[in-house]
Write a structure and sequence with these properties.
By secondary structure, the protein is α/β, with parallel strands linked by helices. Helices cover 36% and strands 19% of the residues. The protein has six helices and seven strands; from the N terminus they run αβαβαβββααβαβ.
Length: 171
């Protein structure tokens, strides 16, 4: 866990972020609603701050998390956002799997779908998938592909969250 004991005396989760990030009211509502539901789709327009919302949700949930992204660009962007926005985050706590790297984080791992799917039969991938308690899928409108299905089905995470600006677009 990134920052044990960060909950207040009443057991309320902390949605606060580091690095000068402050959630806008619509972001705060989306994060809190998703947290309360446990699972769901965060539908937010491009540029609305899904990355920061994911950082807040991951921090609040405070469980081992796997974030699946479709591209190397998003892999590095999300990891960078998490390293800055999640209080106490380090390169050890926020791992990266993809773009020729396999560094599983102690708390969060951001991974490309293609890397996970290519290694789905390996022990290291099975271990990564099986330890996740929160699974986040970015750009979920792409999830109709068999590759997404194979990887998501192999992950038994209790909490599941998807993000997209167009979750029902199958183009």
């Amino acid at each position: 866990r990134i920052e044990p004991g960060r909950m207040d005396l009443y057991g309320e989760p902390s949605f606060e972020l580091a690095g000068g990030f402050v959630l806008r009211p619509y972001q705060d509502k989306a994060v809190r609603d998703t947290y309360a539901a446990g699972s769901g789709i965060m539908k937010m327009a491009t540029g609305a701050g899904k990355s920061v919302c994911l950082a807040s949700l991951i921090h609040a949930r405070n469980v081992i998390t796997l974030v699946i992204v479709p591209s190397k660009e998003l892999l590095h962007q999300l990891r960078g956002t998490f390293l800055t926005a999640i209080p106490g985050a380090t390169e050890e706590t926020i791992g990266i799997v993809g773009d020729d790297e396999w560094e599983v984080g102690t708390h969060v791992t951001v991974a490309t779908l293609s890397t996970l799917h290519a290694r789905i039969e390996t022990e290291e991938c099975a271990n990564l998938l099986s330890r996740a308690e929160l699974l986040c899928v970015d750009e979920v409108h792409l999830a109709g592909a068999d590759t997404y299905y194979d990887v998501v089905q192999a992950c038994p995470a209790y909490y599941r969250v998807a993000c997209s600006g167009t979750p029902y677009d199958r183009t």
